[in-house]
Design a protein that fits this description.
This protein is an alpha/beta fold and 293 residues long. 30% of the residues lie in helices and 22% in strands. The strands form 3 sheets. Strands 1-2-4-3-5-6-11-12 form an 8-stranded mixed sheet, sandwiched between helices. Strands 7-10 form a two-stranded antiparallel sheet. Helix 2 packs across helix 3. The protein is globular and about 50 Å long.
Length: 293
C-alpha cells in the first residue's frame, strides 16, 4: 500500500515502442507505490495529456499504483514518423508495451474519449490484461456530429502570446467540460500547452494528428463489434449533454457486451474532467467495489 508522501509528485518514466515506421518513445507518469500490484492505467482524450489525471491520481494513489501515459504525438511522447499511424491500433500496441514495461499482469483502465476507445479495443482482446474498464464519455458509437465538431479545432490551434490567452481559448473549446474554477481552467490549459523558444504558447500535440482524424469524419464511428466482446466489469460516465455519447448508445451499452453500469454526470457535456470530488468518487467506488483491502 502506498504511503501518503508518494502521491505528492509523479515519477516520470518512458518506454520505447515500435511502429511500422520505426521506434518512438512513450512518456508516462506514475503515482503511488511502484510495488503495488493494483494498477490503474489512465488514458487521456484526443489532444490532451497525462497530467489531466493528476488530481484523481493523487486521490487514489493510496489504493492504486496510478499510471498515465502521453499517447504518441502528445505531451512529452515522441511524434510518429507517419501521421496515418495516429490511430487506435497503434495506441493499443503502445499500451501493451507500456503494461509490459510496468510489469503488470492486470490493469484497471480509465479512458477519457479517445482513451476510452483504446480501452474498448484492448478489453475486447482474448487474454486482455484489462480487469475493470471505466469509459469516461466514451462508447462504441461516436456520432458524426461530435466528430465534425472536434474536427473544427484539431490541428488548428494557434500560437498564444501568453498563458492567459491560451486559458481563454481552452475555456472556449472545452466549454462542454462544465463549470470549473479559474485555477482549474488554468490547470487544464497548462496540461495542454508548452512554451516555445520564441515565447509563444502552443498546443503540446502533433498537429498532424488531424490528418488521420479526417479519415473518421463524415460518418458515425461504429465499434460495437469490439464492445460486444468485452467481458470485464464496465462503468460508463456520460456527460449529461454529451454530443459524443448519446443516451441511446449508453442504454444499449447497459444491455450488450459487458452490460455496463451507466452514470450520468449533470451539468457536463463532453467530457467530465474528473477534477471534481464527486466525479473522482464515482471512479474510486467502482474500482474498490467487491475488493478486500
Amino acid at each position: 500500500m502506498a504511503e501518503a508522501g508518494l502521491a505528492a509528485e509523479p515519477r516520470r518514466r518512458s518506454v520505447q515502442c515500435a511502429s511500422a515506421k520505426g521506434l518512438h518513445r512513450i512518456a508516462y507518469l506514475e503515482w503511488g507505490d511502484a510495488r503495488n500490484r493494483d494498477v490503474l492505467l489512465c488514458v487521456h482524450g484526443l489532444t490532451r495529456s497525462a497530467r489531466d489525471f493528476e488530481v484523481l491520481a493523487r486521490e487514489l494513489a493510496g489504493q492504486f499504483r496510478v499510471v498515465a501515459p502521453d499517447l504518441a504525438g502528445r505531451g512529452d511522447s515522441d511524434r510518429l514518423a507517419d501521421p496515418m499511424l495516429y490511430a487506435v491500433p497503434q495506441y493499443v500496441a503502445d499500451m501493451v508495451t507500456l503494461i509490459a514495461r510496468i510489469d503488470a499482469d492486470t490493469v484497471n483502465w480509465l479512458g477519457t474519449s479517445l482513451g476510452g476507445l483504446v480501452g474498448i479495443a484492448l478489453a475486447a482482446q482474448a487474454g486482455t490484461p484489462v480487469r475493470k474498464l471505466i469509459l469516461n464519455d466514451s462508447g462504441p458509437l461516436v456520432s458524426k456530429i461530435a466528430l465534425e465538431r472536434i474536427g473544427t479545432y484539431v490541428g488548428n490551434a494557434p500560437g498564444f502570446p501568453s498563458l492567459d490567452a491560451a486559458v481563454r481559448y481552452v475555456r472556449t473549446i472545452s466549454a462542454p467540460f462544465g463549470e470549473h474554477s479559474e485555477a482549474q481552467w488554468r490547470f487544464l490549459t497548462e496540461n495542454w500547452v508548452r512554451q516555445a523558444p520564441d515565447g509563444t504558447w502552443r498546443a503540446a500535440y502533433d498537429p498532424r494528428i488531424a490528418e488521420a482524424y479526417r479519415g473518421m469524419v463524415g460518418k458515425d464511428l461504429d465499434l460495437w463489434y469490439l464492445y460486444d466482446a468485452i467481458r470485464c466489469p464496465t462503468l460508463v460516465l456520460r456527460g449529461e449533454s454529451s454530443d459524443l455519447l448519446s443516451r441511446d448508445t449508453t442504454a444499449q451499452m447497459a444491455k450488450r457486451g459487458p452490460k455496463a453500469r451507466v452514470v450520468e454526470v449533470r451539468g457536463v457535456g463532453h467530457a467530465p474532467s474528473l477534477l471534481h470530488p464527486d466525479q473522482i468518487a464515482l471512479v474510486r467506488d467502482f474500482l474498490l467495489e467487491g475488493e478486500t483491502r
